[in-house]
Write a structure and sequence with these properties.
single chain; alpha+beta; 7-stranded mixed sheet; 4-stranded parallel sheet; 26 helices; 31 strands; binds zinc ion
Length: about 800
């Protein structure tokens, strides 16, 4: 008996698949729409650390599913590529002097060989990398289309600024006020930025979640991020100067309780309304606020701070003079950058009013009675202290007050979103250049489409300028150009696109990766899109998916794609934790390297193990004992394959077991319930392994079922059975429904030795179960009523005799 030579087997079949392009996919027009599937993995960022055991978990799942689908006669598109622009490569370049392209290419080579060593059935001819000019040509192309439609605009905005990376950071790159990349406290800085008007799509990004087969929790995360609310915009007149302050409120019914107003320190009115006496304090406060990040100003701030401007506004409901303050907990980027403060019914306003001695008025009451407010009482109820509206329930008051405001011309119904426009530029080298030119005569002019890609210039160093501008700004021969419109001297845009750009549309490029005249040919888009299944980590549950959906909707509006949504079904695989259930991390020294697992156990074992650990979507701890168990199973498969083969018919019980196994493995694989499918195959193997000789009619279907789960070993066994490769293109075994039915036996129930009832039950039922069945039978229960059961005798598959008191 020989050992299971997994290393030789895996290398042999990987070479075979590569040489024969076994998984090359074409657009065969004969395949009907319902027999085509596009199954996509979230493509990786090729980091210097190489592949992690968590990466392939999702890839294994989609790969099993794709191999299964192909065997079921589907045309399957299953590609892989690299999201290869980004800050880590740039930071590495700054530290070591290596060009980001060089380190990125090295990382891609390593990732590719690691991924190939795991035996995935990708169509490698479709590989893409977002930092290649042939790819980012089309990222630039889509950007220009957005810009032409007014969906990209320039603005001077305060951004998060990392004084160490010397670059602007998106909010999601700031964790607890620190730079997510280097840990330095983040400050604020005003910079000229390119911004994408994603808010124009807020309503559709929310509404269209309804058409997606995503988990409720994932949809909820997107919903909360978009943050739609309904309320009113209300204009408060200033006491002096004739101006107004506009606020957005979800509670216009509390207007009578507005006893002061607060502006964001950046609000343009601040400079105009501040009185001379208050000027020094206000200016000092504005300056301090400009250094803080949004997070420091809101969630991290324990104490509310603020300064009175000296100005007053007028409450439109009761004509009262109310003071106007500034405070950094109001963000200029949310709503109108100003609020009416209702301290009686908002905790934050209450704390602020208490601290600064401002008036607190109750305007909502649970039962209509007035109370001394010891804290903000935010509940719905009945209006009090609200003039002619007293006594109205909250919901009705809201409707009435909005009508009233609209009639008076001082307010209107409004919908607001938490979603902000997307700051779409970074002051970095290693990103897509924004293909625009600034001309003193013509303003901003697009680089003509036929001149794309606008390539990154070759540089020796990517060190930040430190001025806040991208390293590109320090290359005069690149920056200085001619205006495409007038031919006069002009300057190139030096900001580059954020890392998210390339992943916004990569799934479309896989359809047609070498097309030089379009991002993808329309017939290929129509052939494959939208994506049937998308699998990836939960860390992309919000931003990547929101950004990609936004671009896709834009392309749909432009008539360039066939569906309003790109990802119809989406699954987040659970995390793989270290042994003991803690997160894997370098500092804990519990990181598992896939290369070691492949070397010591083989890729098939790793795949089988990761899929056997538990349901795909839950997080689960790595276990060395568990992986050894998976290996023993495959070793046993190998030993079983060494049994003499026969053409004899298998026995009836074995045949029944086979068909039940096929049925269950098919159903579970179809539902992505891989762990239970593997258990079924293990049960089957237990029986097969004990046979003196192996009927081919039993073994062949088993090997076929095994092939998505242990593809290398299954190819080898397929060949051992005397077949020509590849098993990957064979048909999935069918089951005979009649053979999957449970075998039934008739069980006799006796009471004190007399036959009292009979029941048909599945054969092989356990003694305890039979006992329960008998005692629960209606007729028997009737007979036993008032009697004491002394003893129950069970003969499996035959009878239950109950000895009872007379
Ligand atoms: Zn930093
Ligand atoms: Zn010009």
């Amino acid at each position: 008996m020989t050992g299971y030579p997994f290393s030789d087997i895996e290398k042999k079949w990987q070479a075979f698949w590569e040489k024969n392009k076994t998984f090359r996919t074409t657009e065969d027009p004969a395949v009907p729409r319902e027999k085509r599937k596009y199954v996509l993995d979230m493509f990786p960022y090729p980091s210097a650390a190489g592949l992690h055991v968590g990466h392939p978990e999702g890839y294994f799942a989609t790969d099993i599913y794709c191999r299964y689908l192909r065997m079921k006669g589907f045309q399957v598109l299953h590609p892989m590529g690299f999201d290869s622009f980004g800050l880590p490569a740039e930071n590495y370049a700054i530290k070591t002097g290596t060009h980001p392209r060089v380190s990125t290419e090295q990382n891609i080579v390593r990732f590719t060989s690691q991924i190939k060593a795991l035996g995935f059935s990708y169509d490698w001819d479709r590989r893409i990398s977002t930092c290649e000019p042939e790819y980012y040509r089309w990222t630039q192309w889509i950007f220009l289309r957005l810009w032409e439609k007014g969906l990209a605009y320039e603005a001077e905005v305060p951004i998060n600024w990392c004084p160490s990376c010397l670059t602007g950071l998106a909010n999601e790159e700031v964790k607890d006020g620190l730079c997510d990349r280097c840990g330095t406290p983040v400050t604020r800085r005003n910079l000229r930025q390119w911004i994408l008007r994603i808010t124009a799509y807020a309503e559709r990004l929310l509404a269209d979640l309804d058409m997606l087969a995503w988990s409720d929790s994932l949809k909820l995360m997107q919903t909360n991020w978009i943050g739609r609310s309904e309320g009113a915009n209300v204009r408060f007149a200033l006491e002096k100067g004739g101006g107004t302050i506009e606020v957005y409120t979800t509670r216009p019914d509390t207007l009578f309780g507005a006893t002061y107003m607060v502006l964001a320190p950046e609000h343009p009115l601040v400079r105009k309304i501040t009185t001379p006496a208050q000027k020094p304090a206000v200016e000092e406060y504005v300056k301090a606020a400009s250094m803080k990040s949004d997070l420091e100003r809101t969630e991290l701030a324990k104490d509310k701070t603020g300064v009175f401007t000296g100005a007053f506004a007028v409450n439109p409901m009761n004509g009262k003079k109310i003071p106007v303050w500034i405070s950094d907990y109001i963000l200029i980027s949310y709503g109108t950058g100003a609020i009416m403060a209702v301290p009686g019914h908002d905790e934050r306003d209450f704390a602020f009013a208490k601290k600064f001695g401002l008036e607190i008025v109750q305007v909502v009451s649970r039962d209509g009675s007035l109370v001394e407010l010891a804290q903000a009482d935010p509940t719905d109820g009945i209006a009090v202290n609200s003039g002619e509206f007293n006594g109205l329930p909250t919901a009705e008051f809201k409707t009435r007050i909005i009508e009233w405001l609209e009639k008076k011309g001082i307010g209107s119904r409004a919908v607001n979103y938490k979603l902000r426009d997307w700051i779409f530029s970074r002051q970095r080298y290693w990103g897509e250049p924004i293909p625009l030119v600034h001309c003193p005569k013509d303003g901003t002019v697009a680089v003509p489409y036929d001149q794309l890609p606008l390539k990154l210039p070759e540089v020796k160093t990517v060190t930040p300028t430190g001025t806040g501008e991208s390293p590109l700004a320090a290359i005069p021969e690149w920056v200085n150009t001619t205006c495409p419109k007038c031919g006069g001297p002009a300057r190139r845009e030096t900001n580059t696109m954020p890392q998210w750009a390339g992943s916004c549309w990569y799934y479309l490029r896989f359809l047609d990766p070498s097309n030089a005249s379009a991002f993808a040919a329309r017939d290929k888009i129509d052939y494959w899109m939208p994506i049937d299944l998308y699998v990836g980590g939960a860390e992309h549950a919000v931003l990547h998916l929101l950004y990609a959906r936004f671009w896709h909707k834009f392309l749909f509006d432009e008539g360039l794609v066939n569906s309003p949504e790109p990802f119809m079904r989406l699954i987040n695989q659970g995390m793989i934790l270290g042994e003991g259930g803690v997160k894997m991390s370098k500092s804990l020294g519990n990181v598992i390297n896939p290369d070691d697992i492949v070397r010591d156990y083989g890729a098939d074992t790793m795949r089988l193990y990761e899929m056997f650990m538990g349901p795909l979507e839950v997080s689960k701890p790595w276990s060395t004992r568990g992986i050894a168990g998976a290996k023993r199973f495959l070793e046993r498969v190998w030993r079983t394959s060494e049994l003499p083969l026969t053409d004899d018919e298998p026995s009836e019980p074995l045949l029944r077991l086979l068909h039940k196994t096929i049925k269950k493995v098919s159903r579970d694989t179809d539902r992505l319930e891989f762990n239970t499918a593997i258990s079924e195959m293990m049960i089957f193997l237990n029986e097969a392994a004990g046979l003196p000789a192996l009927p081919k009619k039993l073994w062949t279907p088993f090997v076929l079922m095994l092939s998505p789960y242990a593809p290398h070993l299954a190819e080898e066994l397929w060949e051992k059975l005397g077949n020509a490769p590849s098993i990957s293109r064979q048909h999935w075994p069918e089951w005979n429904e009649a053979l999957t039915a449970e075998e039934l036996v008739e069980v006799v129930y006796q009471v004190n030795g007399k036959i009292r009832a009979k029941e048909s039950l599945p054969a092989g039922m356990a003694e305890g179960e039979l006992r329960e069945k008998a005692l629960g039978h209606d007729r028997i229960r009737e007979l036993l009523s008032g009697k004491e059961v002394r003893k129950v005798i069970v003969v499996p598959n035959k009878l239950v005799n109950i000895v009872a008191s007379l």
